[in-house]
Specification:
Layout: E1 5-14, E2 20-29, E3 37-40, E4 44-46, E5 50-58, E6 70-73, E7 85-86, E8 88-92, E9 97-104, E10 108-115, E11 118-125, E12 127-129, E13 134-139, E14 142-144, E15 149-156, E16 167-169, E17 175-182, E18 185-192, E19 199-207, E20 214-222, E21 228-233, E22 236-238, E23 244-250, E24 264-268, E25 271-281, E26 285-291, E27 298-306, H1 310-313, E28 315-322, E29 325-328, E30 332-334, E31 340-346, H2 353-357, E32 359-363, E33 366-367, E34 369-377, E35 380-386, E36 394-402, E37 409-417, E38 421-426, E39 429-431, E40 437-443, E41 455-458, E42 461-462, E43 464-470, E44 474-480, E45 489-496, H3 503-508, E46 511-518, E47 523-529, E48 532-538, E49 552-553, E50 556-557, E51 562-567, E52 570-574
Parallel strand pairs: 4-12, 14-20, 22-28, 30-37, 39-46
Antiparallel strand pairs: 1-2, 3-5, 5-9, 6-7, 6-10, 8-9, 10-11, 13-15, 15-18, 16-19, 17-18, 19-20, 21-23, 23-26, 24-25, 24-27, 25-26, 27-28, 29-31, 31-35, 32-33, 32-36, 34-35, 36-37, 38-40, 40-44, 41-42, 41-45, 43-44, 45-46, 47-48, 48-52, 49-50, 51-52
Length: 575
């Protein structure tokens, strides 16, 4: 249709009995656009480095589960062979699609993105620096003389093939003991001899071979005891930052002004943190409060020193930044979605109402909704979340994203089960008085072991389950139909797994179908029995006693001597 936006589709169902029913649903026509709006940062990198580009694509159809987005590093539209980079889809909905894809630092990229309805180019200029070693961090920054000292230096710009023989140092007596490589970062182990001279010493680290790459560190060696960390808490906190940490430092020279928090510098690796307050400062003990910065998840060396003399006063400890985690009051649900669950997120900074509502939960490839922010406190938040429908059965990752934060973090998992469906009812209709037996065939019904674990309701009337077989795929029930108040017409039947204790799950796993009660005229078969006749009456109300029925022969009243049998739909009288 040449339309855009949401329409309401109405459907009218005509049954064989000329009764009608109606339902409707919303359907959205999205525009197929070529005027893509693509947003991405302009990276600054070193030649040969690997980096990840993030791109936000607007005015494009959302990607569904199973779509693959290939990135083409070529301006030639016909050069599909260049599409050798697969993008990671972080989120995709009607608002925007966010992609991540790896590239190598080069002069510039002209990248082509395409999927159904999308075909556009993205120019990614890069500020390229010459290849070089860069010192990210090293530990310790100061130490006493007179003993062997192991120093770890983290470097960017090395090579995965490096070993201890690939790196050398010009400092006298310093030995390279080990080189480890992890995700583009080289960790070089150095051993400094006991006779290393006091004072500020420069140690140069260089690669062996071509190209020649080098970097240097400065370490302060002194005859006095170095500053040490007595205690720091917490040592583990959210990677989003914002946590208040208290640090106690011994043997740190007192600062001149405790009211000036900039007198002390704190680094989490290369990232500076804000000192919120200096509680006290003396040579014996300094106590500070630090606000943790936003970091990638991982373990960091934390450096604390007086701003005026960083090398002579540094004290260090380790800190772990963790992605926030979540627990749910329900971790399983129907693939139909719609269930409301409570998500408790641990490891977040304190969120105001606006930032809390900016989070969008993604259950696998399906986007849910935050219905309500129940609470937000120090490092925790509680959300009421609506679980979306999904075509993924089994366990999926639950990811929360926010336009206020750059990273998408895995918070937990949720398991979808396939909702039950009634495959066949044999027969699907019967007499208005009930009493007949039907067979039910149900797929994906919870496995039941006994007839007491399942309840079958025709409207509000319970049926009798006389036999069953059940496995993980199919459940077969033999059911005796009850009599219902509306003794003719369609009646909703619910098959309930009563063995499931949680009401919400029990409701989701209930199977439903329609059963038709057929109104029938009573029929009588007559046979002689001496001076009496036997009447076999079908399609009639149950006859409790002889006083409850009247039989006439023409205008003459017969005498009902005995009701020999009476059940729903069938009775036998002696008259």
């Amino acid at each position: 249709e040449a339309v855009e936006g949401a329409l309401t589709v109405s459907c009218l169902v005509l049954s064989r009995k000329s009764s009608t029913s109606q339902f409707s649903f919303d359907f959205t026509y999205y525009p197929v656009r070529t005027d893509l709006q693509v947003e991405t940062g302009v990276p600054e990198c070193y030649s040969g480095d690997n980096l990840t580009i993030s791109a936000v694509v607007k005015n494009a159809a959302p990607l569904s589960h199973g779509h693959q987005v290939m990135v083409q590093n070529s301006a030639d539209p016909a050069d599909r062979a260049a599409a050798n980079i697969e993008a990671e889809i972080a989120i995709s909905d009607w608002r925007y699609t966010k992609l991540f894809f790896p590239v190598t630092c080069d002069s510039a990229y002209s990248i082509r993105l395409w999927w159904p309805g999308v075909d556009g180019f993205l120019d990614v200029p890069m500020t390229v620096k010459p290849a070089a070693l860069r010192v990210l961090s090293f530990f310790p920054r100061s130490a006493p003389t007179g003993r062997l000292l192991d120093v770890q230096v983290k470097l960017a710009g090395g090579a995965e093939s490096w070993s201890a023989t690939s790196v050398t140092t010009t400092a006298s007596g310093v030995v390279v003991t080990d080189v480890q490589w992890d995700a583009g970062i080289s960790t070089v182990g150095l051993q400094i001899p006991a006779n290393f001279p006091a004072g500020t010493q420069t140690i140069s680290i260089s690669s062996v071979g071509n190209p020649l790459l080098s970097a240097s560190i400065q370490i302060f060696m002194n005859d006095l005891a170095s500053a040490t960390i007595r205690k720091a808490t917490p040592l583990t906190a959210s990677a989003l930052g914002g946590t208040t940490m208290v640090v106690w430092i011994e043997a740190l020279a007192a600062v001149d002004d405790v009211s000036d928090p900039t007198s002390i510098t704190v680094l989490f690796g290369p990232t500076a943190a804000a000192v919120a307050r200096i509680r006290s400062s003396s040579r014996e003990l300094t106590v500070i409060e630090v606000i943790t910065p936003a970091l990638q998840a991982g373990v960091y060396d934390v450096f604390v020193y007086r701003t005026v003399d960083p090398l002579s006063s540094a004290a260090t400890f380790s800190f772990t930044a963790e992605n926030a985690k979540a627990s749910f009051d329900f971790t399983v649900g129907s693939a139909r979605g719609g269930r409301e669950i409570t998500a408790t997120l641990i490891g977040l900074p304190t969120l105001n109402d606006q930032s809390a509502k900016s989070f969008v939960p993604a259950f696998g490839t399906s986007e849910g909704r935050v219905l309500e922010v129940i609470s937000s406190d120090v490092e925790s938040a509680v959300f009421k979340v609506e679980v979306p429908p999904s075509d993924q059965i089994g366990e999926v990752e639950v990811l929360f994203s926010s336009v206020l934060y750059d990273t998408v973090m895995v918070y937990g998992s949720f398991t979808y089960y396939q909702p039950p469906a009634v495959l066949k009812v044999v027969p699907s209709f019967g007499p208005s008085g009930g009493g007949n037996t039907i067979m039910l065939f149900i797929s994906k019904f919870p496995k039941v072991l006994s007839v007491v674990d399942v309840s079958v309701l025709f409207g509000d009337e319970a049926a009798v389950v006389t036999a069953l077989t059940s496995d993980d795929d199919t459940t077969v029930l033999e059911v005796v139909v009850p009599r219902v108040a509306n003794d003719a017409g369609d009646t909703e039947v619910r098959v309930i797994p009563t063995s499931i204790a949680v009401p919400e799950e029990r409701e989701e796993r209930t199977a439903n179908f329609m059963y038709t009660f057929m109104r029938q005229a009573p029929a009588v078969e007559v046979s002689s029995n001496g001076n009496m006749v036997e009447l076999q009456v079908s399609g009639f109300e149950p006859i409790i006693s002889a006083e409850n029925v009247k039989v006439t022969f023409g205008s003459m009243l017969g005498v009902v001597r005995e009701v020999t049998r009476s059940e729903p739909g069938f009775s036998v009288l002696l008259v």
